[in-house]
User: Which sequence fits this backbone?
C-alpha cells in the first residue's frame, strides 16, 4: 500500500490484473458536498475535494464575478456538517447587494442550468477585454517544459488517478502553484484563489489545465486576468469564440511539444523545444 495522501481515502478492493485476483488497499479521491454561503445566505452547493478550501472560496468568488478583487472577501470559515462542508464567506456589502440582485430572479424556481444564473445574459456574461500583450510572448518551449513536469506534481492524482489539476507557470514554464480537485472547474477556482492570495501577477505567465477548455473555464481565467490558458484537451467552439472576444491566448491539445492555438496567437511564440529542465513548485 502506498503512503497516505491528503484528500484521499483507503478502500479494500478486489483487483484483477494479469489473470490474477488480489485483495488490496487502494486510494480513492475524496468527494464531498461543499456549500458556499455569502454573508449568511446560501448561494451554491458543489461537489469537491476537501482541500485548499480557502483558495476555493476566494477563487470561486473572483471567477464568478461575485467580487472584483481579493480584498473584497473579508473572511472564510469552514464548517464541518454531518453531510459535508459549509464555507461561510463574508464579502463587502456592495458585492453582497449585487449578488442579492442576481439571486432575486431565481426565487420560486426549482433549479437552473448554471450555478447562480437564470438567463443567457448571466450565463454568457460580458467580460472586460484583457490588456494588450506587453513584453515577450510566452514561448511554446515554456509550455512544453510545464507539461513535461506537470504529472510529477499531481500528488493526489498519482495516488488516485481521479482528479484534475490547474497550475500557474511563470514565463519560463516553471510550475509555481498547483491545485487539484475532482472537478476541473474547482481545480481552476482553487488555483485562482491561490494566485490571488499569493499576489501573483497573472500577466507574467500562463495557466495549464488537465482537461478540456469550456467557456466557463475561459470566463474564470479571463475574470482573473489570465492572458494565456493552456488545456491538454480541446476547447469548445464557444470557449474559442469567447477567448477571441476578450483577447486571450487559448491553447488546446497541448501534448509534449505539440499544441493548437485557437485564439490570441500574438501572445505565444512557436519554437523548437530543447531538452526539458526541472521546475520548481511552491505551495
Assistant:
Amino acid at each position: 500500500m502506498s503512503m497516505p495522501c491528503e484528500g484521499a481515502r483507503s478502500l479494500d478492493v478486489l483487483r484483477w490484473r494479469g489473470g490474477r485476483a488480489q485483495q488490496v488497499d487502494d486510494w480513492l479521491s475524496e468527494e464531498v458536498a461543499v456549500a458556499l454561503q455569502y454573508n449568511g445566505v446560501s448561494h451554491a452547493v458543489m461537489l469537491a475535494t476537501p482541500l485548499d478550501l480557502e483558495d476555493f472560496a476566494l477563487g470561486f468568488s473572483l471567477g464568478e464575478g461575485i467580487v472584483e478583487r481579493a480584498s473584497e472577501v473579508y473572511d472564510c470559515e469552514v464548517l464541518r456538517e454531518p453531510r459535508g462542508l459549509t464555507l461561510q464567506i463574508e464579502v463587502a456589502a456592495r458585492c453582497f447587494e449585487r449578488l442579492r440582485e442576481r439571486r432575486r430572479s431565481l426565487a420560486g424556481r426549482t433549479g437552473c442550468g448554471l450555478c447562480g444564473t437564470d438567463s443567457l445574459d448571466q450565463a454568457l456574461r460580458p467580460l472586460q477585454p484583457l490588456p494588450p500583450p506587453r513584453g515577450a510572448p510566452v514561448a511554446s518551449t515554456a509550455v512544453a517544459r510545464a507539461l513535461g513536469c506537470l504529472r510529477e506534481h499531481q500528488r493526489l492524482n498519482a495516488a488516485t488517478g481521479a482528479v484534475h489539476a490547474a497550475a500557474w507557470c511563470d514565463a519560463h514554464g516553471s510550475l509555481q502553484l498547483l491545485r487539484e480537485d475532482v472537478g476541473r472547474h474547482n481545480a481552476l477556482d482553487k488555483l485562482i484563489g491561490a494566485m490571488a492570495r499569493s499576489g501573483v501577477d497573472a500577466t507574467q505567465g500562463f495557466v495549464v489545465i488537465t482537461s478540456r477548455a469550456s467557456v466557463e473555464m475561459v470566463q474564470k481565467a479571463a475574470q482573473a486576468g489570465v492572458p494565456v490558458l493552456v488545456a491538454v484537451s480541446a476547447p469548445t467552439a464557444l470557449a474559442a469564440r469567447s477567448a477571441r472576444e476578450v483577447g486571450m491566448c487559448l491553447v488546446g491539445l497541448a501534448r509534449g511539444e505539440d499544441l493548437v492555438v485557437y485564439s490570441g496567437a500574438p501572445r505565444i511564440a512557436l519554437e523548437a523545444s530543447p531538452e526539458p529542465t526541472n521546475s520548481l513548485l511552491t505551495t
Remarks:
- Confidence is low (pLDDT under 50) at residues 105-114.
- The two ends are 26 Å apart (CA to CA).
- The chain has two domains: 32-123, 138-269.
- Residues 32-123 form a domain with the Ubiquitin-like (UB roll) fold (CATH 3.10.20.10).
